[in-house]
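Structure tokens please, single chain.
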Amino acid sequence: MQFGSGDLTIDLSGTFTDQDGDTLALTASSGDASIARVNIIGTNVVVTPIAIGATNISITADDGKGGLVTDSFILTVNGPIQTNAMFFFGDGADVQSVTKDVPVAPFLRFDYFTRTRFTNGTLVISLEGITATTSDSVNIDGWRSIDASEISEDGHTLTFTGINFSGDIAFEMHNKTYSEGTYIIRAQGDADGIGTTYSADNRTITVNAK
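Here you go.
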């Protein structure tokens, strides 16, 4: 399979079936993430090109009862490659706020680096000039689609509860058009519940897209 810029979405509905009718969990991996990255969103596999080249894409269906099947194909990225805008809350350092200049692109990613382990914690993301939908993705110890119950304020607020994780929490915003301008993203995290040991963690990114 060959393609160039922009995400490639492949509908896997009906590709894998279970003779007992068990629900199948889908996972996907790229043999070379420097060429293309893959995510499972619902029953779709979304492939994002990174660089020109070829890589093996593997998709696995698991019924959770020992039934496991994997299919794969060679993906060739032939360009041109769309520049992705990626920005971070302090690159993992103890930074309260940061300003980033990024290229205008139809794909945005931002990462929140936890300062301590979340234990039944809460993370609230506030977006100005950007809206989130269930087509977007979050990685909290594994990529998944953002659930409708986690979205409020017409897509300007994301709330994640019951987090038990330490590390990089990433967000990917897909299929949007971002014009030149300034966008503000705020994160408020509480590692173990409001009013308990760890105080709230507030951080801000100001994104200058141009």
